[in-house]
Fold these 3 entries.
Entry 1:
Amino acid sequence: MRFLFVGDSMTIGRAGDWTWRYRMWEHLERVLPGGYEIVGPRDGLYVPEGEPGDPAGYADPAFPAAARRHLAGWGEGWLHMAPVIGEAVAAARADVLLVSLGLIDLGFYTNSEQTEENVRAFVTAARAANPGIRAVLLPVIPNIRATYDAAFAAECARFNELLAKAVADLDTAASPLLLASVPDGYELRTDTYDGTHPGPSGEHRLAAAFAGAMHRAWGYGGPYRPR
């Protein structure tokens, strides 16, 4: 089973981060040992231009190179991933997409309706590359901007409604889609390091959201238990 992580800055992570991808790798090692592969065209972390840092500098240097693969980018959203997901799925022969996108779209590029159109384009392209692709989609989770920008908060809420509808509309027996739950008790003060990007506890909560959805709906693996 080949898993492809797709996401924005919260998924790629910054130099020195563990990332929720790392937490998911730990989970998969425990519940599907030898029965999975993490795939994707990229493997690095984000390093701001002009700042010191190593794109291979994960907090745990023992994180295997093969498990670092992904399709995530700082500042990239549904708008950016819809045109490239088909090629990525075909090249990596991905079976399952774990997708965390939307915040950057609504913050900088598109409104909720336009973002939902890109979700549908993304799913169409992924299925063209693999008609049996499965995907777990995470709604926009709590973030600092939504606490002071009422219009942005409304767009996030509206997009999450549209995302749920899109998942329901597009779900098929041949290519199942799941809507993950916003992590229970997600707190900006303790689960992020800047109000948006997850710290260690937030990484565990994000990994648990994906792992729990797959276990409940598809019987994949087992319950998430942070190490």
Entry 2:
Amino acid sequence: MQLYTIGQTARLLGVSPDTARRWADAGKISTHREESGRRLIEGRDLAAFAVELGRGAVAEDENAHTSVRNAFPGIVTAIKLGDVAAQVEIQAGPHRLVSLLTREAAEELELEVGMQATARVKSTNVHIDRA
């Protein structure tokens, strides 16, 4: 059976090692310790968890509700405001996501370069959630 460290798990799931540790500490993903004390996750457990994560069954913020499942937490890197439309760019790890939305929506979110935000991708649309 393939075993994964917390760091490997984090990379595979696209989260920080701290997030993977929090999930393990909360019992959301089962781990066991090897003799050296390092926590390991069995491949089958990780695969099942990844499926649940993909379905949106695992959330950092239990109060968040959305039908959009493909979330890319990141940092706002650019905002271009036009008369009617706005373009917001988010860097989420190695991914650069661009959302075109109304100027009014961008202003209501009070987005600023450097703030945390989550890009949610559904079909060909990129939605922005303020962190």
Entry 3:
Amino acid sequence: MIKNPEVLCKKLGLKFNDPQLFVMALTHRSVGARNNERLEFLGDAILGFVIAEKLHEIFPEASEGVLSRLRASLVNQCSLADVARKHNIGDYLILGTGELKSGGFRRDSILSDAFEAIIGSLFKDQGIEVCKQWILTMFDEKFTCLSLENWQKDPKTQLQELMQSKKLSLPEYTLLSMSGLPHEQTFKVKCAIELTDKFSVGKGVSRKRAEQDAAEQMLILLKRDN
């Protein structure tokens, strides 16, 4: 059973003047002609602009090429799907029967499109400023981990190099759980390091993706503690 979109709307910190716009953003094309594709098109353009403007602001010395690559690292399909998963957007997607049976609510392409469609729907409902603030809130953690020195390195590499620089043991990743059918599993992994008694937990459609997510959460945790 598809969960109530109003619940997700509240979890995302949103309140729509026209709730049907939000429902439309969650509706996949497999349902029929009335779907989220046009809103996704709009949201994609808005997201690219907002992220580009923020990068231009926080990296004043970066060249156009570097800014472009930084933006691509934030707005690619994998990145957007990760943001969608953190907020369980897949649980609220309105999918056709075929997509439901094949686990479409876990697919990166469908999750990322829905996230962009939500941006498009928010813009239509409340304008660019509200939309911009919500996007920046959603990407706050990713911006926290971003720097010109390490943006091209994945989170596991960054965390490993940090531990090596302090002559400490490498991060330890422990598989906590696997759920779902064999072809559409979700992995949950714990990351522990010597620098802190705290640990992080990551999720992903593969163990590797879950470990990357756990490493990213650990980097965020370390930055906050410092």
